[in-house]
Design a protein that fits this description.
Radius of gyration: 19 Å
CATH architecture of the largest domain: 3-Layer(aba) Sandwich
Bound molecules: 2'-O-acetyl adenosine-5-diphosphoribose
Shape: globular
Order of helices and strands: EHHHHHHEHEEEEHEHEEH
CATH topology of the largest domain: Rossmann fold
Strand order of the largest sheet: 3-2-1-7-8-9
Oligomer: single chain
Number of strands: 9
Helix content: 25-40%
Strand content: 15-25%
CATH superfamily of the largest domain: TPP-binding domain
Number of helices: 10
CATH class of the largest domain: Alpha Beta
Distance between the termini: 11 Å
Length: 247
């Protein structure tokens, strides 16, 4: 059998050991900030300065020397680039840690469905720009020059995730699904495993059972930097063995 098309879904848990907070753990971002204050279009309309402060803080963290891709990011980069069939890494994370491990042409394997902290979008002209500084309510758009319309290029609650058509196409062809470091509470990503049931092999890799853990064919629980590299080596060895048997 040729190797099946692969989708890897990741969430905040994969970046936890790189020093970035998850959302729903006891010390997570949603324990310290209310979603309706910082992560909805209504919050941005009501108090853009507060929303900017939240994302400025998170963007600045990405430049801390200690915040680097960990062994799990590196292992998944190896998996999607070495996999002998189409492979797509769909991340809910807005950090750039996967992107750092998939430079140049390898970036085609990565789809950040909830947006990217290191990009900003102009509400006046729609232009998306690479962005590493703080944003303010007065920041002018580098494309159209108008101030006041720059927002983080982030998908907020109530907005449509990015790349859904590409995800749908990949889901239609998918025969192997890995879910890594996500609590399985935010749709549509949380629904992928149920949609793939019966037609793809599904594996959860997470610190603890996610909400949809019982829907997976198999699950392994532990820190991402330990269990992800081991699973990746196993899957690649399996694919290699099957290729040899065919040949
Ligand atoms: P959550 O914070 O909901 O879940 C993180 C998961 O990672 C939990 O199940 C943890 O047990 C697990 N975890 C924590 N540390 C880990 C480690 N070292 N190794 C492996 N797993 C670990 O984050 P997400 O599922 O990513 O959306 O959340 C999904 C979306 O909800 C986010 O993209 C964000 C949030 O609201 C938006 O902001 C639109």
């Amino acid at each position: 059998m040729p190797a099946p098309a692969l989708i890897v879904l990741t969430g905040a848990g994969i970046s936890a050991e790189s020093g970035l907070a998850t959302f729903r753990d006891p010390n997570g971002l949603w324990a310290r900030h209310r979603i309706e204050d910082v992560a909805t279009p209504e919050a941005f309309a009501r108090d853009p300065a507060r929303v900017h402060a939240f994302y400025n803080m998170r963007r600045a963290q990405l430049h801390e020397p200690a915040v680097q891709p960990n062994a799990a990011h590196h292992a998944l980069a190896r998996l999607v680039t070495a996999w002998p069939a189409p492979a797509l890494l769909v991340t809910q994370n807005v950090d750039d840690l996967h992107a750092r491990t998939l430079p140049g042409a390898a970036a085609r394997h990565l789809l950040p469905m909830h947006g990217e902290l290191r990009k900003a979008r102009c509400l006046h002209c729609g232009q998306v720009t690479a962005w590493d500084q703080d944003l303010s309510t007065q920041t002018p758009c580098p494309a159209c020059g108008k101030p006041g319309g720059m927002r983080p290029h982030i998908v907020w609650f109530g907005e449509t995730p990015l790349g859904l058509e590409r995800i749908e196409d990949a889901m239609a062809a998918c025969g192997m699904f890995l879910s890594v470091g996500t609590s399985g509470q935010v749709y549509p990503a949380a629904g992928f495993v149920a949609a793939l049931r019966g037609r793809a092999r599904t594996l959860e890799l997470n610190l603890e059972p996610s909400l949809g853990s019982h829907l997976f064919d198999a699950a392994e629980h532990g820190p991402a930097t330990t269990i992800v590299p081991a699973a990746v080596e196993r899957l690649l060895a399996e694919a290699e063995r099957e290729k040899k048997e065919e040949g």
